[in-house]
Amino acid sequence: MEKPYLLHLNQSCDLETTYEAIRSGFIALALEKNQRATPLIAEARTLKIIAQTANNPRDLLNIPDIQAALLTASGISDKAKNYLHPQDKVEAIQELIVNFLEPAGTNFVEELVYRFLLIRGDTLGGIMRNAGGSLAQSKFTRSLLATLRVAGIAYDWLNSSNNQWLFGNCYANN
To answer: In 5-36, which positions are buried (b, 16+ CB within 10 angstroms) versus exposed (e)?
Structure first.
């Protein structure tokens, strides 16, 4: 009896992803990245508007509504914020002002916004790496379940979101 996988796998190139599938995946991720970047751009625009009320970089310290954004622009990630004491956060912002915003002169707001976007972009990169893996997992799972259903093979699966077993035997009542 011939091995079942030999019905569709004859050589190693049968396992290679086609150009069309690769292209489709990259385009889907690019669209998703742009979609997820939209709120970050809105944050940067808001930061710019509020920061423009400051006469100089040190005045930024007196604007309560942008302290979280200043911390981001200083290079502190959302995760790192949870491990720092308030004084450490102030020190990071002061270092940003002294080392980068003051040397920028009258362009300090532009420098602030660029640094904010750079760090938020790094966050977006991490989010997208997770999203890419999640999209691939979903696509693989759908393909596997479709194959089992078409073949009429009963299956059970553990729903990871609620830890409940689900029964996929759609042919049990036929």
So the answer is: eeeeeeeeeeeeeeeeeeeeeeeeeeeebeee
